[in-house]
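Q: Convert this sequence to structure tokens.
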Amino acid sequence: MKSSLAPSTRIISLVTAIALGLVFVLPIWRIDLIAPQYPEGLYLQIYAAKLGGDVDVINGLNHYIGMNHIHEKDFVEFKVLPFLILTIAAFGLLTVFINRRWFYFTWFGCLLAFGVLAMVDFYRWLYNYGHNLDPTAAIKVPGQSYQPPLIGYKQLLNFGAYSMPDTGGWIFIGAGVLLLAGAWIEIKRSRKTGGFKSAVALLLITPFFLIGCSSEPQAIPYGKQSCHYCKMTLMDQQFGTELLSEKGKAYFFDDITCLREYIREEQAGTTGNYRVFMSDFEQPEKLLDLEQAFLYQSAEIRGPMGGTIAAFESANARDQFSQSKQGKNTTWKEQVQP
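A:
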């Protein structure tokens, strides 16, 4: 059949799917720290669902320079990654049995999108830990940040930091190379049998489609990060707000007041199609899209930085709340307009 895969591509798909399944239990990334007082070095390993290595020792050192402690429970990725990895591996097995070129290119596109998103998220993680420092830390170096390199080497004070893929990461890279080889085989075949343009288009479009649909708000790191506008530590969970930039970068604020002023000043992340969110007043763990949330403004509401607005998921919840406090209904559009 014209759209079926070559035998070599099916073998590549099977080998790749099995290899990706192994990533479920293997370390994906590794960060090594070398310093005179630690001649044997310290290391941190990142698995799909946990951390490994000298986590406690590294946390102890980070405390002195004001970096947040690294805890597994703080990473929603550890809940999502195992599912995504096994899904991608299962996708590969389905490719072998379905035996269709379009399905193979879709799978390849998904793997590419996953790789890009994973590296973007990892960079964000490194940036937040390296830049959001406790101002009361014992060691303060003006203008100094402690962000480890995404990949390669970087000097951080007296520590040399190395960041590289671990066994699982190299398997992912190898899987991408194998699938690229399979894609080349199928593209060459499609030139002879037809469908060349559609095959290439599917390969190019799939990762961009997935990336464009994947940006979701992140949990607000209360007690660990400062507001991007007023620089106060995020504390009150009923009033936390978030701006998600067009590129997927999250900016956190302790109140809708800070978020509004940040946008009016056209600071970083406020160009393009950004999105804004606020904690549900009754269910603070839930972030509501401010464009759709039901807002209530009252002088009796006491939020950080003088905030007087609470957000609710439904009009009924807002109306019930309004019975106990004198104020008025409002919208995000009314709040942000000049």
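The two ends are 62 Å apart (CA to CA).
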